[in-house]
Write a structure and sequence with these properties.
This protein is an alpha/beta fold. It contains 7 helices and 12 strands.
Length: about 260
């Protein structure tokens, strides 16, 4: 009888400690103020090379794996915000967690991106834990926001019969995981679903909406007070630059390699 009571007490203690541990982990996300970029926020997007801390931009968008926490802390010391870039909808064979992706979720290669393959985003049972681990790493390094890339597999030749509904479910789930960790989250491209996904995301990142004549899709997003961080890889006309500026977009000009170079529209 004594052993039974002792065993029961031990189980209660273990359960209590587990509960306290959960609260301790969750506290930083809920306690700190979540940053949301506003329309017109200046930004730098650098995914290759050593991060140049001297760029005059309110926020930096840099790679999760290649950027150490010391760089994030250095940006904060300069009163800048840091956004964590990661690919949510594609597999990259050079990443340190590449072995976590089973073969059955790997689809066709991304055109023009060696070593990268589309993911079966319907398999949240497999991809969810991987995304949670990546977002935990973002939070541990001190990032303020997250840019999940390749969240439009349904509109590409992914190798899977993905639907628009599959994409909405996946994108919304990833956004929630980031926000649960106290970070804002940006919708990357997926222009066709901007209106549906707008409420779930805190800002947007767009590539070449001028070149593809898609910038008007973000008017409601901007009207809601959410930043649209926009990049063009070819020099747009001054007329187009003036138009997106009036809309409130944060437009920069970059080379496709996304190095240190930065010009403004």
């Amino acid at each position: 009888m004594i052993d039974m009571y002792a065993s029961t007490r031990r189980r209660w203690v273990v359960a209590l400690l587990a509960c306290l541990a959960c609260l301790a982990v969750a506290a930083p996300a809920s306690a700190r103020s979540v940053w949301h970029p506003r329309p017109g926020t200046t930004w730098q997007w650098q995914l290759t090379g050593k991060v140049d801390l001297s760029v005059r931009a309110r926020m930096y968008d840099v790679d999760l794996f290649d950027t150490p926490g010391s760089v994030v802390r250095a940006l904060h010391a300069r009163h800048r915000k840091a956004v964590c870039y990661l690919s949510a909808g594609s597999y990259e064979n050079w990443r340190p967690d590449a072995g976590a992706f089973p073969a059955e979720v790997l689809g066709r290669p991304l055109d023009g991106w060696p070593g990268e393959r589309w993911l079966d985003i319907r398999r949240l049972d497999v991809l969810g834990p991987i995304m949670r681990a990546r977002l935990d790493a973002c939070r541990a390094k001190g990032f303020d926001g997250v840019e999940p890339d390749n969240v439009d597999g349904y509109a590409n030749d992914s190798g899977f019969p993905l639907t628009a509904e599959d994409q909405l479910a996946f994108d919304t789930a990833v956004a929630g995981l980031a926000q649960d960790r106290g970070m804002s989250v940006g919708l990357k491209n997926d222009v066709e679903q901007v209106d549906q996904l707008g409420p779930a995301f805190d800002f947007a990142v767009n590539e070449e909406c001028i070149a593809y004549d898609e910038c008007d899709a973000y008017r409601d997003f901007l009207a809601a007070g959410k930043a649209v961080l926009h990049v063009e890889y070819e020099n747009p006309s001054s007329r187009h630059c003036s138009a997106v500026s009036r809309m409130g977009m944060s437009t920069i000009l970059k080379s496709p390699e996304l190095g240190v170079d930065l010009r403004h529209c």
